[in-house]
């Protein structure tokens, strides 16, 4: 098996993982491109490249190429982890596009979970209502921003939390 096939396996698996992350949304129309999901797919792809090369190191004759693949996987892992944790590339529109499927996951989980306690069911129902309302609000805001973008000179508010 050649290095091209190895690269194709990693690239295909990474793309498949990116798509699979949307399977737990409540509704198909809640699927929107998410940079965070892309960074997570790359993080998994980098990890997979390291693990697979670790197991198949002796199957590939070029030790220098093998070490380069391992180093590349580590770099992709580290860079994508930084992007996921920092959210440095995620602006307000990208944030809302990422949050719509995220909220949709809460709707799916709250709807489909087997809940017997009425207090927990009440909490789940309130989560469904809140998340659906917030999905609608984000869609409205996205549509509004497409019609009339925010002023470029407005400073961004600093991030909150750790």
UniProtKB/TrEMBL annotation:
Transmembrane parts of this sequence: 6-26, 38-59, 65-84
InterPro entries, per the entry: DUF305_CopM-like (IPR005183), Ferritin-like (IPR012347)
Record key words, sorted: Membrane, Transmembrane, Transmembrane helix
Domain DUF305: 94-153
A Pfam family matched in the record: DUF305
Protein name: DUF305 domain-containing protein
Protein's organism: Falsiroseomonas frigidaquae
Upper lineage: Bacteria, Pseudomonadati, Pseudomonadota, Alphaproteobacteria, Acetobacterales
